[in-house]
Amino acid sequence: MTALQQRVLTAAVLLALLLGALLYPHGWVFASVTLVLIAAAAWEWFRLNSATPYMAYVAGAICAMVCGALWTAGAHSIPLPGLWIGATAAWCLAGAVLLYRGVPLWAQIPAALRQIGGLLVLVCAWLAVIQAKERGTAFLLSALALAWVADTGAYFVGRAWGGRWFRTRLAPSISPGKTWEGFCGGLAVAFLLAYGWWAADTALASTTPSLYTIVGQHSPLLLVVVVPALTAWSVVGDLLESLVKRSANVKDSSALLPGHGGVLDRIDALLPTLPASMFLVHVCAN
């Protein structure tokens, strides 16, 4: 099997699994599938941050138990605006500092602090995706789609025109392949997605609004601010994971997903955007 075939097969299996869980009428199925993925991401995170193999497995188990306890306690249906505000602010601050200082600063942070911080980020992201699902499948998919299309647009535009318009790279010391041209391309595609989805929801009078429809109903002009912000947060998540991998001197977070690397490699852009999406809903719905 070629690398491309392996990549396509893995993607097809993951897509079938996630779509099946997402469309299943009982929410605990989707919660369970995403819990397994986030626990695997916790295992990867600890391995990337100086944990022993045993401690990495323990971290994955702890992550699963915490998420399970939150589900049992009903946290998936309790409004948590303070958490989303705090998480979004923390991503803004930590992202700016870490991307500015780069790998040297990350290596200076005590391993225990890095490990615990990552665990909190993953649990927060899991809770955000579960609460997004509670708001409706359309809302969740719209929040996920922006990070996906922005990344895809950035890849293809960066491959075609990277380095032609801007003299500097986006983050040369962290991810040399990422360009400002790619970022602009990803942002353009994200705008098309957001305004297209909002227009479709409006025309069809959808009863299950997307993230963009909720923001657009509050103020259509607000999308001009929200889309670049979410796109930037998705890039920050991607770059911070690249920073961590560069510090650990590895290419992928693990080999759990053949042809794709690890779970963190697939969800890094969602870690900041999901809590930010829940924050935006709180702002626009009140």
Automatic annotation (TrEMBL):
UniProt keyword annotation of Nucleotidyltransferase present: yes
Cell compartment(s), UniProt: Cell membrane
GO cellular component entries: plasma membrane
Pfam families: CTP_transf_1
Main location: membrane
Catalytic activity: a 1,2-diacyl-sn-glycero-3-phosphate + CTP + H(+) = a CDP-1,2-diacyl-sn-glycerol + diphosphate
GO biological process: CDP-diacylglycerol biosynthetic process
Keyword Cell inner membrane assigned: no
Membrane-topology descriptor: Multi-pass membrane protein
GO molecular function, one term: phosphatidate cytidylyltransferase activity
Keyword line: Cell membrane, Lipid biosynthesis, Lipid metabolism, Membrane, Nucleotidyltransferase, Phospholipid biosynthesis, Phospholipid metabolism, Transferase, Transmembrane, Transmembrane helix
Enzyme Commission number, as recorded: 2.7.7.41
Pathway assigned in UniProt: Phospholipid metabolism; CDP-diacylglycerol biosynthesis; CDP-diacylglycerol from sn-glycerol 3-phosphate: step 3/3; Lipid metabolism
Segments traversing the membrane: 7-24, 30-47, 54-74, 80-100, 112-132, 138-158, 179-200, 220-240
Homology family: Belongs to the CDS family.
Protein name (database record): Phosphatidate cytidylyltransferase
